[in-house]
Records
---
Amino acid sequence: MKTLTLAQIYELQGLKSDALEIYKEILKKDPKNSEARAAIHRLSGVRRHFQGVNEKMRDFFVDMDSDAEFAEFERWLSKL
């Protein structure tokens, strides 16, 4: 069952596309749902703003769990 709560969980986990699809489905069923509408606006804006993001480094950042990985990511950022 696709709910606002599930969409919010997906969003918090970084699964923005999945969350966006759920919000859109909710809005189709309930066009007055202001929370779904705001989430769609927020996520659509993020998607447009960060087009061309380095997906490999984004995934690396999300999955980092050691000081060495953090240092590697910092080095990559400093090169931008």
---
Amino acid sequence: MVKRTSHKDVACGVARPLDAIGDSWSLLIVRDAFEGSRRFGEFQRSLGMAKNILAARLRHLVEHGIFEAVAPEDGGAHLEYQLTEKGRGMFVLLTALRQWGEDYFFEPGEAHVHLVDRKRGQPVRRLELVAQDGRRLTPEDTMVNRDGVD
């Protein structure tokens, strides 16, 4: 297997998290955790991935503090994987990815799942980037500030 390049020392808020995320399987595992999966078998059934790959991804996500492995409340023998605060912080990232996917990867009228407000049952409002003064920002309105970067 080819060794992946680490971005842990790069001064970029996009590159560093990619070390923790790793690949698409990891994002799908986190997605499933937000949908209620907690046990290895639940992730495996939902994703249909090989057990050795799932075990490696879960171990990686625990090592990076996205999940914690805990004893189940029911006293069962198998560990449960719970999202940490860091892992729960990925909710907005996954929501942005979901909305982007809905915009560009489905044909008009094609059926797909939607994120809805549990309390009201209504679709979640589109995410948008907003300036301190409330203006909606586009890529042209922003820049990466490299002050203080070696």
---
Amino acid sequence: MERMQDVRLFIRVVDLGSFSRAAAELGIGQPAATKQIAHMERRLGARLLHRSTHGVSPTEIGLLYYDKCRLIAHHAEEAQSVAALLQSQVQGGLRVSTSVGFGRRVLAPRLMQFMRINPQLQVDLAVDDRYVDLVEQGTDVAIRMGRLADSTLGARYLGVNPWLAAAAPEYLEARGTPEHPRELAAHEALVYSSVQGDARWHFSGPGHQAAVVPVRGRLRSNSLSTLLEAACEGMGVAILPWYVAHAEVRKGRLLALLPQWSLPSQEIHAVYPSPNMVPAKVTRFVDWLQGKFGERWWTQS
């Protein structure tokens, strides 16, 4: 980089025939400009400029060197233009990470839509319910649920991920339909072992009421798909994200319980390794995703 600054300075000195004018144009002092050119001449072992009271002009060697410097500067500017162009376009590879259930049910179809809009983009979607180190895994953007722990990451809020309590009609016929969260303590719970307080379910109700219910059951899993299927088979009550349960609720295989009460919602964020110098492909993708998680977005999944 320092050599390129010398090259640019030498070109402008020759073009303008003046140390002072070249120095002023490049925002450096004349003594510094004179010193840089003298250093170039010592490094090359050749005089590049004739100096006189009327100005400066290139020597024979200096003229040849000037032509090469112009070529180098042109290629450098061309390389910068290419880099800027690539930075401004949605193309190349985009590595995306998210959880298994959200990736399969929600993000994958949306990614395919984005790829149709941007045919020069190649996507690598990695799904994993474990925490992923974005830098270590070379991830461009991750979609995460819940509170963000790492403040050094770049992040954009996308929306909320609401949950519900649900059970199959045949289960409710046999065990009764709970009318208050505390009644769930007597039911067979299908426990999701990753979030939502594990075996303590937290509800908010009318008039700022709160209920924390300890639950128990024979099946617990970190797989939302497993708990969904178990609930549909009448094995108990599950708490699930609406995007997981919506299709089965619509079909009547599951019934949403306790309509006056709500479970904690999770915030959805797009996160990327740094808030600075974010590639265009990431910015455009996140901008596009922000329009996909509005009111009742899960009904589109």
